[in-house]
Structure formats: C-alpha cells, structure tokens
Amino acid sequence: MPGNGEKPPLLEVKDLSVDFRTSTGVVNAVRNVSFTLGRERLGIVGESGSGKSTIGRTILRLHGANGLIRAQRMAFEDRDLLALSERQMRGVRGRQITMIMQDPKYSLNPVLKIGDQIAEAYRAHSNATRTEARARSIEMLGAVQINDPERVAETYPHQLSGGMGQRVMIAMMLIPNPALLIADEPTSALDVTIQMQILAILDDMVTKKGMGLIFISHDLNLVASFCDRILIMYKGRIVESCMASELHAAKHPYTQGLLGCVPDINREAEELNVLEKDPEWAR
User: Fold this and answer.
1) Could you report the per-residue pLDDT of 169-221, keeping only the tens digit for each?
2) Cα separations (Å) of 54 from 102, 158, 209?
3) pLDDT digits over 77-87, tens only?
4) Residue ranges per structural domain of the chain
5) How would you class 128 by CB atoms within 10 Å of its CB: exposed for 0-12, middle for 13-18, buried for 19 or more?
6) Pairing label, strands 73-76, 11-22
7) Which of 46, 83, 209, 212 is most deeply buried (CB count within 10 A of its CB)?
8) The domain defined by 1-87+228-283 carries CATH number 3.40.50
C-alpha cells in the first residue's frame, strides 16, 4: 500500500486466483496474478482459455455463483473491492468501472431502443431527468462519431452493424465518466477498417477523459500498437510483463513464440513458429 503521501494506483491486484466449481471438478482459471494500473493503457494478451477475460470480469465481481476469488489485495482507488457489499459494489460497477463486452448483440437489450438503453444507463448513476438523460445519450452517440445520432437513438440493436453496435457500447460505458474502462476483445469481430475506427474512438475518449484502460485481446500486434504496457498470459498465469515499446526484446519463450507466429511482410519466406501444446517451461 502507498505511504508517505504517495498517491495509490488506480487499480491494484495482488496474488489473485480465481477457481470455478464444475460438475467434473475445480477449474483453476487464474493463478497468482499481480499487477497495478494507473491512468494508462494496459493490454492483457493470451489465447482462448488463458484467463484474460476472467480477470476483467473478476475486477467487477462478475465471476458468478460457482466462482471463488482469492487475493491478497484487489483495490480500486485504494478501496478493497473484495470487502464491499453487493450494494456498495453496484455503486462501483457500471459507474466508476465499466466494461465493453466482445459482442454488442449479447450486451444490448433487443427490445429497447438504443437511445432508451443509453439514457437508462445514465439515469442509473445520476439524478438526471428523462429529458436530460435523453439529450445526454444523443450527445454521447455523436461523441463516438455516429452520424445522425437522433435517428440511431430510435433504432433497435438488430438494426445496427457490428461496428455501429460497438460504438453504441462505447457510448453507453463512457456516459457515466468512469475512471476505469475494461474493453474485452472490443474489435475481434470487426474487419480491419472498422477496427481502426473503433480504436481511434477509444483512443480519443480515453485520452480526453484521462481514464485507465484495460484492453483484453488475443491480437498481440494490435495491443502492442495501442497500449502502454502489456501482460502476456498462459494458462491462467502472467508469464511476461513489459512496456509495449520493449515487446521486441521479450525474454519469455512463450512471448517469443507468439512473436514468431506473426507474419512479417519484410521477413523472408519461412514457416511460422508452432507453439508446443505442453511446453517444458509450463510444467
């Protein structure tokens, strides 16, 4: 914990482990993970099943009834998240910490208009009137570069493209002015052009608001180009932590293997690396 007047980090996670009880036994999803986050961009990279999304959900205590969290410390702005009651946690979740999920069609209510959903999210964490919330929702739709926000506010989720849906989710998650945004694979289902547009919007909004960002992805190149620091995960553990600018000098064999799997147009034709299923260093 900080002392001598030192300002605490925005988020501090120390020795976090997450297990899930299943019908076939206990699954160790996250094991002894530690990191801190300031008002910066932290990328968490790993293949499917590595535990990266579980970390994001656990910070919000969305681990489910079959999940068990153990940690020496999991604090947001020096508040112990594990010590908060569910009622107190609702004051943090969706207001001070928000999360963009991978696919907006599973996050948005299919029977409510877009404008009503954003306004509802705003009113849940403010004293705004319906009229004020409506105006604010249209303002936020414009802020995420949606043309004709008044028209889009009257549409339903199934009428939106994937890129438009992600813009709506960004607007909804940023309308409470959170201090921390968790983005879980926010661009994985989008084509490259739309990906870049969504990242540009996130870049602009996060910079303007001075927020902390946790960017979860399986795309190492994307994270390296967008984040300040990177955590590499394998089977629930952090195997490497480095500055994005120093990724090329990674020491861990798994990170080196990931880098070797990335096609490079400037490299002579050669077979890409194949990562071992059960490498000796992971045993």
Assistant:
1) 999 999 999 999 999 998 887 888 888 888 898 888 888 889 999 999 999 98
2) 13, 27, 26
3) 999 999 999 99
4) 1-87+228-283
5) middle
6) antiparallel
7) 46
8) yes
